[in-house]
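Good morning,

Both structures are done.
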Amino acid sequence: MWTALVIASVVFLYIGLPLIYRIYACWILKSKAVKSNALVLTFDDGPSNRLTPAIMDLLDQYKAKAAFFLLGKHIPGREKIVKQIQERGHEICSHGYDHLNYLKVSPWRALADIRRGWKAIDAALGHKRERYPFRPPYGKLNIVCLLYLLARRVPIVYWTKDSGDTSKSKPENQKIELLTANAQGTVPLAHDFKRSDERTEHLILESIQLALERTQENGMRIMTVSELLNSRK
């Protein structure tokens, strides 16, 4: 009985507490986005040679900024794109290095993946910051990683809406919904990694444009992750 209780307690601490934190963080994120009437565009798993610059060109047309959660293993060879993200005023964030599920690897490997992702960004930008807003791969953390990030005061950024841009079940002619039809705040999860199908990339760009147009029509604000998290609303 005591063994089972100890095991249950360990499991709750290792998995349960990070899950509770995620629920709370998502609630805060949604609350701030709604109160600010804001769209916060976020892109995971880049950079890519074609889609990432195309997204930035589109954002420039609307004078909009976004957050790019870079995957460390996709940075080598694309350092110029990382620098362009920064130079064009977008927010550089981290998505780790190897896109690991931190509940399926040891906590030490997970920690190493977080730090390696930061170092890859630093190497591309030519400085030593060693700390960027972080989005856990698959949205999952273990207690060791959670405490590490909190201790370092690293913003942990989730999302309020999945755009569905990685879904294989979506019809090709269906726009990916990045923004709800009614005017309310949202932090959508989208991706800018390399696609094998150019039609998918075109669909993503069309959907971003639709989101930006709706934002303007509904009188919403376009904010960065840091602007939203630092808002007092």
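Second structure follows.
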Amino acid sequence: MAAKKDAKSSRKKQQGGNDKPAEETESGEVGGREDLSEQEIAEGKEVKTVKKEAKREQKRAPPPRKPTQEDSKQRKPPQEREFPIIAIGASAGGLEALESLFSNMPPDTGMSFVVVTHTDPSRQSMLPQILQRGTQMEVIQIKGGMSVKPNTIYLPPSNKDVALEHDTFEFKEQRGVSTMRLPIDTFFKSLADNRGERAGCIVLSGTGTDGSQGLRFLKENGGLAMVQRPESAKYSGMPESAIATGLADFVLDPGEMPRQLIEYFSHPSNIKIGAETEEGADSPGVISKVVAILAKRTGHDFSQYKKSTLIRRIQRRMSVTRAPDGDRYLKHLHRHPDEIDSLFQDLLIGVTSFFRDPEAFAHLKEKVLPELLTRNDDQSFRVWVAGCATGEEVYSIVILLMEVLDELDIRKELQIFGTDIDETAIEKARDGVFPPNIAADVSPARLKRFFGREDSHYRVRTHVREPVVFAVQNVLKDPPFSRLDLLLCRNLLIYLESSAQKKLIPLFHYALKSGGVLFLGTSETVGEFTDIFAPISKKWNTYRKRDVSVSAQPHVRFPTGRKDMDAAIEQMRPFKTAQAVKESGIAYATERLLLTKHTPTCVIVNHNGEIHYIHGRTGKYLEPSAGYASLNVVDMAREGLRFELSYALRKVKERGRMVRREGLKVKTNGEPQEINLTVKPMAEPESLKDMLMILFEEAAPRKEPARTGKEAPIDGVKERVIELERELARVRQDHRTTLEELETSNEELKSLNEELQSSNEELQSTNEELESSREELQSLNEELATVNSELHDKITEVSDAYDTITDVLNSTRIAILFVDEDNVVKRFTSEAAKLVNLIENDVGRPLSHISTNLQYENLREDIRSVIHDLNVVEKEVATQDGHWYNMRIVPYRTKDNRIDGAIVTFINIDEQKKAQQRLE
């Protein structure tokens, strides 16, 4: 009851505009509630209200066209709380893209823009001043606690990482230099949690992968994702990484993005899905038709997905495709099959990360896993991760298990099964390759132990990958795994109808061993099945399987479908099937060879002793071994033959020539039989070149002299003793030889192992140093590229100002000459060039090298006097052609009040002189 009261009070706040809209909150796992039926009722009422408003709005306004300032003035959000917030991530080369984006953006879009870049924390960024020149919107540097308002551009300080919490900006503590800094991901994630569907993100030029993980979170919450076309980016690393997620709605040039943004967010947020009744309820026809199209195209039935989730995802795709109603969208699906795949990916957004909800995984490691791993003597530990997406959660569990096993100092075989409905995600999980930004979620110690660095990404190490099997599986359709110790199903149930949840929880109960643990997401519970699951931690949603009587167990409906898991496990078997061997052509070549040469009973094996072909009756010499089926000839050898056969195979591999052993006694049906054994390499045909032939021949019976009387038994005993002594001597010799060879091999292997360990340590140390240096250089390169772009823009600005000042000086027709303290020409105006005979190449030349048109000889001395004494010289001077000028020489002072030369000005006073002559 308390939960219901909290839910009602929460919805009242939402309707008053003091918190998130209910539909938006439900879109992400943060806003999930346990009381699903009451939530759906509340959502239905809100959807009806919004749909009526959207319908009236559609009747009043024409469809959006090319955005203009006039159009943008007419677009006002229904509530200020509803205006979209667009997060823009950029790094190296992003300045040009930002200028192109905002120069094409109308000033009254009703949106707010937050620009997050990689900047040097030690210097003040000039980006606010640069962006302000190209837009009429206000550009503001963020301060802690500042609220967001529309039609404004926000930029965080250089030394702060920013996040959005309850529509206000909050600063996050920056990580150390040794840890990867990902400010774009940080803000994208906070925006996804805060705004959901009324949010968008744009990834522009830059190196690395920052922004890709945040884009996933924003898409999970129904936001819009745009990426700069890599061909138009100076650095394509960040755009290509974002596109590789497969979640980008639009890939455009920066100048094309404003129009698409305005069209998307001006589209009604709740478009009618189909025909509506007077009350405005959705017709189920369009939803069911879309689900049917998806099932036909992908083979997956989404009818048991939560209806509110389906409606939101379909409406989002309708906004992207500009479909005004459900019928138009159905036609679009039929005409554009690629849109079905896009909708399928939207429904399957598997947002995950390593150790997502770190406190929950810490609880699992400290409170759950030690007890599970020590509670029984089973040599294997089985885990199933349902809905594993790209595998981060699977590898997180493997890491935790290996750490706990080491801490407890026990050994167990791990069998981890990761399944998901998305085949593309499973392929990525199998590769085990992840971008460098996982360093934000995985500690340096874990990165070093469980991951290897390859170029610009991390790959899970072999010992982490080996115990894991990935398979495509639909938990609602395909058979489950069984005899599990641990089952993880996190953030999957929140997208399913309650009927599907009631089907899965008993299935999970069946799949677990007695005392097994079920680990759910932070917004999920077992619901009404508390009689079969006991809570370990309600906060972290971990449950232990209860052992109940057969009569009390819930009915389990077992799904039947594809055998993907069996196929995946079958691929792990080391031996080929008989059919595969037959198809290889070896059997045909062997049969021809043996029939041609009339060979006695034999088998053809490879160098590992695995049988590829059998000729004749070998039952006297070989028999199937007990246990797991094996085709190894040594395992199948009868008593008395195994040791000699193993020895002969080893000698043939070492020496490359035939080995023959005679008089071997093999027990067949309890009776010893004497045989001759021959093992030889095969040289022909070509297909059998790497094979060995093992020949079994019955030894000819020995002729013994006839004995009579008492000598017969005595001689028989003596011969038996001699034979045993001979056999014992041979065994001792073989044993001694084998020990010597083994000791030699062990010494060589030990020496080689020490060398390899030493080399590996050196290489690992060098690799770590190089990777650390590379990351620092990459970060520094991005910061320098950003600074370079800003300086380039500043130089352009200064150059424009210089040209303007030069034009102003030339337009005054005043002759001005600048010289330094050594009387060297620094710059001059065009009027001064006529008086002092200057050309452009004279800049940098001493004034004494240049003749003047003045009837004045003391110009250079007066300049020196002004620079030395800091006085001002003012005289009237005449030119050779009779013109008069008022010459004024003053010191040239720099900004820091340092004398750096002199300024000579010449003002024409011909009219003044003529007037003076007339007066005289």
